[in-house]
Amino acid sequence: MSNNYLPTKSNLMKLQSSLRITKQGQELLERKKIILTKELEKYLDKEKNLRKEVFDMMEIGKSLIRNANIDIGIDNLYNIANGVKIDNYIDIKNVTLMGTEIPSAVHNQEIVKRNYGFYNTTNTVDEAIFKFNEIQEKLIELAILENTILRLKKNIEKVRKRSNALQNIIIPENERNLISITDKLAEREREEFARLKVVKKKIN
């Protein structure tokens, strides 16, 4: 038997304190799990709605591209697309939610400038370009939401495992040791009392 579980009053008090702290820790983990789960549900709803919004925008975008293709031809549209400046600067920052780092992106999008003339183009080209710039913003937002959901799920699972380990392994083991020490101390006290009675009887 470990010295920590020897039947002494000192170990009894230490174990009682440890058990109390462990139970409080397990309760806090359960609260944390509940809070994180509620946050996850919010993000899942946002992600579902945003995914549908992006899908609808993509359908509009594809329709605009088809119209632009009909208006100016695939070759002209391809040349214009190749000339559009690629805006790929995204600054990722993290905020912390109960130990979970939530990504937040700052996208410094520049105002879209024409890099083509009006000759052989129509307003459908402008509409298609602006629509896909809007789609880009929504895709960035969607990627952040998906990353956030993944991180929250991982943290919830980690908290769940810790809470279960405390509840199903550590706390029951400490309670068994506490009962064992309490019983042995009580037995020792009874034996000591019996010895004192014998000694007292002999003296008298």
List the helices and strands and how they pair.
Blueprint: H1 9-72, H2 74-83, E1 90-97, E2 100-107, H3 123-203
Helix pairs in contact: 1-2, 1-3
Describe this structure in words.
The protein is mainly α. The protein has one domain: Helix Hairpins (Orthogonal Bundle), CATH 1.10.287. Helices cover 76% and strands 8% of the residues. It has helices at 9-72, 74-83, 123-203; strands at residues 90-97, 100-107. Strands 1-2 form a two-stranded antiparallel sheet. A hairpin with a 2-residue loop joins β1 and β2. α1 (9-72) packs across α2 (74-83) and α1 packs antiparallel against α3. It is rod-shaped. The two termini are 41 Å apart. 8% of the residues are buried. The model has no long low-confidence stretch (mean pLDDT 84).
Q: What form results from the Cα inertia axes?
A: rod-shaped
**If you consult CATH, what is the topology?**
Helix Hairpins
Average residue pLDDT: 84
Q: Percent helix among the residues?
A: over 70%
Structural class: mainly alpha
Total beta strands: 2
Beta-sheet strand percentage? 5-15%
List the helices and strands in order: HHEEH
What does the main sheet amount to?
A: 2 strands, antiparallel
Radius of gyration of CA atoms, rounded to a whole number:
34 Å
Figure out the total of helices.
Answer: 3
The CATH first-level class comes to Mainly Alpha
Task: Describe what is shown at a glance.
The chain has 204 residues and is mostly helical.
